[in-house]
Design a protein that fits this description.
CATH class: Mainly Beta
Helix content: 10-25%
Number of strands: 7
Largest sheet: 7 strands, mixed
Oligomer: single chain
Amino acid sequence: METLQPEDLVLVAVLKDRRDLDIARLLGWYRIPVQTAPKTVEVDWLAFYQPSIFGEEQWAIRYIAPVRGHELVTRVELLREEPDHRRAHEPYFKIQLGPLQRLPNPIPSRRWKRITFLYTTGGRLTKAKDVSDLRVPPSAERDRLWRMLRDRLSS
């Protein structure tokens, strides 16, 4: 099993429902609509934020997965059982994942409930006690994070 490294680039993404968690766990992928995607999906890991739909496991990050790659597909190619969905023919990033790993200590969100995407580092993720700890304040670490993002955007 892969180990999260302090310098790894992590994208925190939202699991909209339990089906998305099952897809990530069983099929090994996660989808992001191109229209609402973050600047880059060239990351080392995805961390999954679980919103209120998850009941007792809501408002926390409990799972991470290494990213193996990505491809551009239509939604209907991902979810063939929904050919009439209003976004069926729109482009999506299919992020290929390694095995889902449960964090030994979930990262709750005590104040901050609404998340779309958030970049952070492996070091911040392993030390975080709250989702707000994942934000990288202006610092040398933030400069490194933005350099990593810029380098991946240009590759």
